[in-house]
TrEMBL record:
The keyword Transferase applies. Its EC number is 2.1.3.3. SUPFAM superfamilies: Aspartate/ornithine carbamoyltransferase (SSF53671). Residues 150-302 form the Aspartate/ornithine carbamoyltransferase Asp/Orn-binding domain. This is Ornithine carbamoyltransferase. The keyword Repressor does not apply. The gene is argF. HAMAP family: OTCase. It comes from the Bacteria. Keywords: Amino-acid biosynthesis, Arginine biosynthesis, Cytoplasm, Transferase. Its main location: cytoplasm. Coiled coil: none annotated. It is an enzyme of class 2 (transferase).
Length: 307
């Protein structure tokens, strides 16, 4: 993990294939309790401009378990809420913190922060990517099948930040990735092109509007809400367009016999996923949510060179 010491994670593409696999192995060891690194006296800052449950809590618990401390620096209690420039905030927090996790809107905001801060900066979600979620997703997939070799992940729904990081992460991990969206809701083409380049021919990258073709014999079915944060006004209009992409029992029947079901949460039961599938034997949603803790703990320990 030495290569990750002091590094930023702004995108899944900031990792290479070896680093990703090593990080997932490290997370599994932390979960099993076979390794217990510590970084006492280190301080993690959380700068969140968007609401959060899993990301906020999992980062906080991870840092506490590593022996460090956490400062919650949301906009309402800092000068960020009064319009202090990102460049100024970055240079000030750089003098106080050892690492910072940022949840914000534009990817350019977190990139600007990282440019002006020398401490490691972690993307805790932007409108473009959600790399920490993908680390947990791949850890969950590996747990379910014992290996990531020859597996296919299918994402159904909106081609959003979660879809973008899945495309990049699966490409790096050598996992086939299929993304099925309604017409007009496909993932960013630049991200798709980047995923194809990162895959280096090791895995398939499929973008389609046909959900059944994407799901056929897939090992994991994944979805997210149909309208992300900031798009709530579009939610009702999207329902009829996205209904064919719902993960339900009929869709699950088309997948691999041992397929798992994933969702980054929170979920709108009865919309993008049915209650019975969410609570059924194929669901790994709660393992997936728990794995946010272990994946981010591994990331923090690697970045901070914990021993």
């Amino acid at each position: 993990m030495d290569s990750l010491k002091g590094r930023d994670l702004l995108s899944m593409a900031d990792l290479n294939s070896t680093e990703l696999h090593t990080l997932l192995d490290f997370a599994a060891e932390l979960k099993a309790g076979t390794r217990q690194p510590k970084c006492p006296n280190k301080v993690l800052g959380l700068v969140f401009s968007k609401a959060s449950t899993r990301t906020r809590v999992s980062f906080s618990v991870a840092m506490y378990q590593l022996g460090g401390q956490v400062l919650d620096l949301n906009a309402s209690v800092t000068q960020v809420g009064r319009g202090e420039p990102t460049t100024d905030t970055a240079r000030v927090l750089d003098r106080y913190l050892d690492v910072v996790a940022i949840r914000t809107f534009q990817q350019s905001e977190i990139e600007e922060f990282a440019e002006y801060a020398s401490i490691p900066v972690i993307n805790a979600l932007t409108d473009l990517e959600h790399p920490c979620q993908t680390l947990a997703d791949l850890l969950t997939l590996k747990e379910a099948f014992g290996s990531l070799d020859n597996l296919t992940m299918t994402y159904l729904g909106d081609g959003n930040n979660v879809a973008h990081s899945l495309l990049l992460g699966c490409a790096l991990a050598g996992v086939n990735i299929r993304v099925a969206t309604p017409e007009g809701y496909a993932p960013n083409q630049a991200v798709v092109d980047q995923a194809i380049a990162l895959s280096q021919g090791r895995s398939e990258v499929m973008i389609t509007t046909d959900p059944k073709a994407a799901v056929e014999n897939s090992h994991a079915l994944y979805t997210d809400v149909w309208a992300s944060m900031g798009e709530e006004s579009e939610a009702e209009d999207r329902i009829p367009k996205f209904q064919p992409y719902q993960i339900n029992q009929s869709m699950l029947d088309l997948a691999h016999q041992q397929a798992i079901v994933l969702h980054c949460l929170p979920a709108h039961r009865g919309e993008e996923i049915t209650h019975d599938v969410m609570e059924g034997p194929h669901s790994k949603l709660w393992d997936q949510a728990e794995n946010r803790l272990h994946a981010q703990k591994a990331l923090l320990a690697a970045i901070l060179n914990a021993t």
